[in-house]
Amino acid sequence: MKDCVDHPPITRSVDGARAAALTVRNVSWSARRSGKTILHQTSFELLAGRVLGIVGPNGAGKTTLLRLLYRFQKPTAGTVSLDGQDIWAMPARAVARKVAAVLQEQPTDFALTVREIVALGRSPHQSGFGGSTGARDAKIIEAALDRLGLHGLATRHLGTLSGGERQRVMVARALAQEPRLLILDEPTNHLDIRHQLEVIALIRDLPLTIVTSLHDLNMAAGLCDDVLLLKAGKPLGFGPPAAVLSESTLSDAFDVTARRERLAPSETDHLTFHLSNKGTPNETAPPLPYRNPAERGGSLGRDDGAELQPHRDLRRAARAGHL
To answer: Could you say which of 3.40.30.10, 3.30.9.10, 3.40.50.300, 3.10.20.30 is the CATH number of the domain covering 16-110+177-311?
Structure first.
């Protein structure tokens, strides 16, 4: 696996007291029933305040890795540490105060309003049966609603919202949690162009350490400080996007011909992908435009082969303080 060091972070306002350093050491995960290894030994270090994009084809193990990072599943081997502390040596509530996750599957049957769901982000910080309803919590909830433009939907029930609106609610709930590490599973999925750009701008501006899975490789190249490329549960590269997202590595990872082209008007690099014609290995089919899943109106599907069902994911995440 390619391991790159000595790369300065993208300029970002980072509060060192808030962002956490993430260390993944020799982590792997195997399905309990079948014993099949979904994620093979993976290691990387992410400095506080950096944005890591996890990319790879379907079945690469992206979601499995995310679940290990937000303590939803325990690694079969290896450790996940925040600021040097193994998250499995910490109480679940203590982890929930430092790590928030926004999942792809959003519940539609919650009998709660948008404001009430965002308020759930304060749960890990509360104590006792009644919790806290203090002025600080209220201020944090209002700020999260404002940042995601949700004040107009605050009294609506979640089930009445569109997929994109629900996604924004869950991001607001995560911000209300005041995490030091934010985990995002396809954060722009189901969002229209404007709200995609707003979420991207939000990620760039947040003074947090962020790990996000992405299908759009051009978005990953422009958004992330570091990229981890997976294929079939194995890491192919970790480091700056320009180093990891090379034509040869992407061609191997996705079984296509990847090309880096220069866009004349903006003078920026852009990745394109081509299918090879069978029987004519030296020729390629016309370019296959790489489109964000939101433009097709849906997800590209789950990628990890894990045995847990989405609703079980949501219930367990809620109990751990991630929802």
So the answer is: 3.40.50.300
